[in-house]
Amino acid sequence: MKDIEKNLHDESIIKQKMLEAMLKHVVFDGWSETSFRNSIIENAYDISAVTRIFPRREIDLALYFHTFDDEIAFHKIQTKEVTSYKIREKIIMAIFTRLEIAHKNKEAVRRSFAMFSLPFYVSDGAKAVLNTSDVIWRAIDDQSDQFTWYTKRLSLSLVYSSCLLFWLNDTSNEYEETQAFIERRVNDILKIEKIKSKVKDLGLFQPINEFLGSKSRSFVKNKSAFPGETYFRSQSD
Q: In this structure, are 91 and 202 located in the same domain?
């Protein structure tokens, strides 16, 4: 047991040290093989040990960067006093909080956004955004049922993606324009959620609800396979 704990501890340190080094190199060379190798050299690590942790090298390290900031966002959102907030205000606050954390390494985020937009890695990018969506809903204590659990996360992932893209190009003071954009997008998506809720309550469209639910479930397979579920389960093991 002690050997296992030591290995996990060592792996955690390697991940953190590699990320710290990579973030410095990414600004100049992007999420590339060059940046990855330079990060290994800087830390004097054995390449085989690092590639066991990051089999796809810079791709897996970029994904680790994303989930690492997701974890920071999760805890930061939970520390905020939001008991008097409406759901709309909670979501807006959570999205902006996640972008505030991303601001520390904006160029690295920009480079990863570009990389995960490539055909080879677009599915990895989608999973990363789904993880952020799941983290946000968990942080604001979402109590969704089986149907809305999936649709809320899929909807929010679309909202977050558009907000992220807008934020990457925003040069306004303290991201005021991004704040306004987030508010508009959240308002739009909540209108859709209200319509879906009314349709569900009517019962007349139950076959449609079941069809949509099955489609969303087939996309993420099941809760245990959902990106956020996998991450949080691994943290509790």
A: yes
